[in-house]
Amino acid sequence: MTEHFDVLMVGAGLSGIDAGVRLSQNCPNKSWAILDGRENLGGTWDLFRYPGVRSDSDMYTLGFPFKAWDDRRAIAPGDVILKYINEAAKEFGVDKKIRYKHWVKRADWSSDDSCWTVEAAVGSDKKVKIFTCNFLYMCSGYYSYKAGYMPEFPGLDEFKGQLIHPQKWPEALDYTDKKVVVIGSGATAITIVPAMAEKAEKVTMLQRSPTYVLGLPDWDPITEVIRLLLPGRLASGINRLKNVWLGVGFFQAARRWPNAARKLIRFHNKRQLGESCDVDVHFNPQYNPWEERICIAANSDLFKAIKSNRADVVTDHIETFTADGILLKSGEEIKADIVVSATGLDLVPLGDLKFSLDGEPWAPGDSMTYKGMMFSDVPNLAQASGYTNSSWTLKCDLTSKYVCRLLNHMDANGFQYCTPCNNDPSVERLPFVDFSSGYIQRAIEKFPKQGSKAPWKLYQNYVLDIFALGYGGMQDEALVYTGVDSDNTSTEVKRRKFG
């Protein structure tokens, strides 16, 4: 039996819960549901269970603007974040609208019916269930939940120890007094290394190239004073605004004066590590700050682990795995009982669904993104995606509110669907994001493109997006609205075919 909703959302993580709250607040007459393939809500924060898992940005900006973050720690542990998401879902009634174990496989748009047909595999037996909706909102994140990225390591069959990817962490893993090697230098590795060093005999972070790392406290006095003196929502809002401006300011300054930013971070690393580590070898990236994401070591825990000799950093390339560890290109061998491959995620656009438009296959890489949230020549489809240089939820919340404005605008004017269309031949197609990180570059061609100018360009700037998404008019030249006359004939503001 087919179920119909006005709006169907895919994914019950941070962005999905945010979307549900905004839809219930701003479009109270719309019917909607959230489909999620997992057994619990929370997305990333329910999936990842590795030691030390935590936010890599502050919770005043990663959290919801409609629910105060009242924990003292702004850089928060994963279990605390998951509890917060569950509380928000229950408080606003979103938890009652989630369909669990609904793994969405495909979505097909019909112009004749002005709706999407969505196919989901339900339950342990993967029974197919069909839904229809007028508007499809993808809140499924940007990576595959099935498995992370695992390189083909030479000699792995010889290794007698255990190889683990953080995305599939064994619940009962005992690493007490074990020799551990963590391959990688991104946010996950920088979190895992000090956490495992508390029990392991020694933890080595093995990296091919360094990453920028800042050691910051998980709270600050100004934030704490505001939190203690003012009511919860007001305090959280002020701290959110403060941290937004600090983040935007630091990003813009680093991109404008990269040499100065590099020197400042190097000075910070030297103060943190002293003579315990060669900063110029292990914390001196070849790229400029914010050409890849800067990592946060909460309470400088990574640096403390290195200084205490519970952890160390090796910058080298893997020659091959051996029976007892890893042989490096330099000839050094690192002994290991456990190897953690913190080598990144397997990125997929729009939940890796198979899409079609009026019977013709469509791939996200064929389109450009409109304001970073809709797709050229694709009707009534939006995605919630965040920033690469700031907290994910900031952009997702703006997107959800824009979707609500769009739905209300179509209702008020008798339109069934809206299609972004690029009619400007001077707009160049550019990669979705300008980031050199390996996990992004591996998948960049699968993702939609951005354009060389508005409204197709991604500015990665929350302040600009407040105006573009929060206050921008709904009569954009790039938007084509379609209504249906009484004789069921489609009428458009402009005519444009898909493709």
Task: Characterize the structure shown.
This protein has about 500 residues and is α/β, with parallel strands linked by helices. It has two domains: about 5-145 and about 350-490, FAD/NAD(P)-binding domain, CATH 3.50.50; about 155-340, FAD/NAD(P)-binding domain (3-Layer(bba) Sandwich), CATH 3.50.50.60. It is about 30% helix and about 25% strand. The chain has 13 helices and 26 strands. It has helices at about 15-25, 45, 60, 80-90, 185-195, 220-230, 230-255, 260-275, 280, 300-305, 390-415, 440, 460-470, and strands spanning about 5-10, 30-35, 100, 100-110, 115-120, 125-140, 160-165, 180-185, 200-205, 215, 295-300, 310-315, 320, 325-330, 335, 340, 355, 360, 370, 375, 380-385, 415-420, 430, 450, 480-485, 490. The strands form seven sheets. Strands 1, 2, 3, 4, 5, 6, 17, 18 and 21 form a nine-stranded mixed β-sheet that branches. Strands 7-16-8-9-12 form a five-stranded parallel β-sheet. A three-stranded antiparallel β-sheet has the order 13-14-15, with no helix packed on it. Helix 6 runs antiparallel to helix 7 (about 230-255) and helix 11 (about 390-415) runs parallel beside helix 13. The protein starts with a strand and ends in a 7-residue tail after the last strand. The model is unreliable at about 495-499 (pLDDT under 50).
